[in-house]
Amino acid sequence: MTTSPPPTSKTSESDSESKADTVLVVDDEEDLADLIAFNLERQGFRSIKALNGTEALALASEKLPSLIILDLMLPDVDGLEVFRRLRKDRRTEQIPIMMLTARVDEVDRVVGLELGADDYVTKPFSPREVALRAKAILRRIRTPLQSPDDALEFGPIRLDPQRFEVFIDGEPVTLTTTEFRLLQELILRRGKVLSRRHLLEHVWGYVHNVTDRTVDTHIKRLRQKIGPAGAAYVETIRGAGYRFADSPRGLLGNYGAENGEDAGEDVSLI
User: Fold this and answer.
1) Which residues are CB-neighbours of 6 under 8 A, at least 6 positions away?
2) Full residue range of the structural domain in which residue 137 is found
3) Is 8 a domain residue?
4) Residue 219 is part of a domain; what is its CATH number?
5) Is 144 within 8 Å of 161 (Cβ atoms)?
6) Who is most buried in 38, 102, 259, 269, counting CB within 10 A?
């Protein structure tokens, strides 16, 4: 009497796929989208693809992927506009986004980062590197900087890692994942000067092929979102990096003038 082997292969493959993170790849070059998807799947991801902005918005809302890789040069809805709509939708506002572009102008990179992109890659690039960066982004946003039960309170700021919430004077503030972790890292090491390299390693999870401007633009956005508390506590240390002060810097009303903001100078880039 023969015994048939248990049908484990299909079930195990199905279970494995259900546990894998899904990445939405948005690029109008189908061959490139396929190549990126292939490398993502080699790294253990599931991938879905969209060839235009309209399809990307629909898939993002329907599938709620773990990560979106978004080309800026799309034929219908511009990639930056897709990004803005994703951030305005409560269902997709917290999904990390990696931007891809053939544009080499620095202004495009800065706009992408100021919108809150988690990473920015210019073409030509290695599809394998894109897949590895995707892993780094998800690892970063899922690795707690301290016990998830420990809320941080400092001055008017309350940061709750367990609920992923930030309050300023009791009022909720919406931050992207990267901004949240950046604020958390600064508060945890308050009083210490943190170099841009340190922040790239501990907040972004890597430093390869990433410029200091990445940190600077996120610091600028963080300051803007947390208002006077950002101006009072998040300090630029010339030539060294950033520091979360042990006590608020001077009078809040005088902070901008003291740091050149009235003259149009971007103090976060010093």
Assistant:
1) none
2) 16-142
3) no
4) 1.10.10.10
5) yes
6) 259
Distance CA 6, CA 34 (A): 34
Closest CA to 222 of 249, 193, 242: 242
Cβ–Cβ under 8 Å, residues 203 and 140: yes
DSSP-based three-state secondary structure for 15: helix
pLDDT digits (tens, 9 = 90+) for 109-150: 666 666 778 888 887 888 888 998 898 888 877 765 444 457
Q: Confirm whether 195 is domain-assigned.
A: yes
CB 53 within 8 A of CB 26: yes
One-letter identity of residue 174: T
Among 246, 221, 211, 217, smallest CA distance to 232 is for 246
- Model confidence pLDDT, tens digit, residues 164-208: 889 998 899 999 888 998 999 999 888 888 988 888 888 887 655
Nearest to 193 by CA among 232, 156, 234, 144: 234
CB 175 within 8 A of CB 225: yes
Q: Which two tokens stand for residue 16?
A: 């494995």
